[in-house]
Amino acid sequence: MVIQHKCNNCGADMIFNAETGMLYCESCGTNIDISQMNMEQQTQNTFNEFVSTASESTYDNDEATQYQCKNCGAVLITDNDTSATTCSFCGAAMILGDRLTGELAPTKVIPFTISKEQAQEAFKKWCKKGLLTPKGFMSANRIKSITGMYVPFWLFDLEGDGEYFSNCTKVRSYTQGDYRITETKHYDVYRHVNLHYNKIPVDASEKMDDLLMDKLEPFDYNNLQTFQTPYLSGYIAEKYNFTDEQLYPRVKQRTEEYMKDYVRDTMREYSSNTFVRQSVDIRPKNTYYTLLPVWMLCYNYEKNDYTFAMNGQTGKIVGKPPISKGKVFTLWGILGILLFVIVKVIAYLIGGVWL
């Protein structure tokens, strides 16, 4: 079924407004506070939902399904990972309700707090900060596309017990007479820790680059909301491809690294630390299927496309811009000159003459 949220005042489509956090009617300006509405009210009169049944036509290997827009009657063909989109003909927001039920129903959502216009301006400012990016890239207005997308994540609550055996050293240097003495003391160090980690995010979409999604962290969970379909109105949303069980090995490895980093921090009094042996037991406590806001930007420069991602809540931008060979050459030239001057100064101070 297709869910389209309509305005009670004028009947026009309503979309989620990232700046106000409310459903907004662009036609008459009506705002509705989603957080104060319960699901029963949403499905009755408040949002006046228009629901249509999906067409029976599907494609080979469940690759796509067609839905009919209630606004204009156009048929929309989507792949099976899409759970919210917009009509290609009239632009109406379409939420594919049959892909948000049962095991596919998200538990939580972090709504967008950055609008499309704000995302564009923030990206332009970010480009100008690139020390080695080409001048044309920094000044050109070549955003090819910008898409607001709710990416499926699993949030993991975990508990970890760990025993760590390390060989640590303390190094002390001092002068005695004409000699410079370095003293190294060795210690066998033991740590036992019990740590709790809440809501470690792992993206569950096979379409998204895992490294890119990891770099978008952190998200502010103070704005974590119980999932409701109006948050998706006007945006694209994907359903998960991987279950929490399938992603557990990945989050377990990350948690092991977090625990090891914590133990390292407890050994800062030592000059060096080498882990000799460790025993770690990590146990999952809870998982939450959650949709997190991401702006995906495609930027065209010199006939090449560059993909960037922006955290739709915090504005953090990740991606690899092009590198200017000319700026790299100039930078190395400046560093070479500085190094030459430093060597000259040192030689003068030691020998009293210029080389």
Quick overview of this protein structure:
The chain has 355 residues and is an alpha+beta fold. The protein is 23% helix and 40% strand.
List key phrases describing it.
3 domains, twelve-stranded mixed beta sheet, 355 residues, alpha+beta, 6 helices
Topology:
Layout lengths: L1 E3 L9 E4 L4 E4 L5 E3 L5 H8 L3 E3 L11 E5 L6 E5 L2 E5 L6 E4 L11 E2 L6 H13 L6 H5 L3 E34 L2 E25 L6 H6 L9 E2 L9 E3 L5 H22 L6 E30 L2 E8 L5 E2 L6 H27 L4
Parallel strand pairs: 10-15, 11-14
Antiparallel strand pairs: 1-5, 1-9, 2-3, 3-4, 6-7, 8-9, 8-14, 10-13, 11-12, 11-15, 15-16, 16-17
The helix content, as a percent range, equals 10-25%
Overall mean pLDDT stands at 82
- Total strands: 17
- Using only C-alpha atoms, the radius of gyration works out to 28 Å
Domain tally: 3
The shape is flat
What proportion of the residues form beta strands (DSSP E)? 35-45%
| Largest sheet properties | 12 strands, mixed
Extract low-pLDDT stretches. 39-61
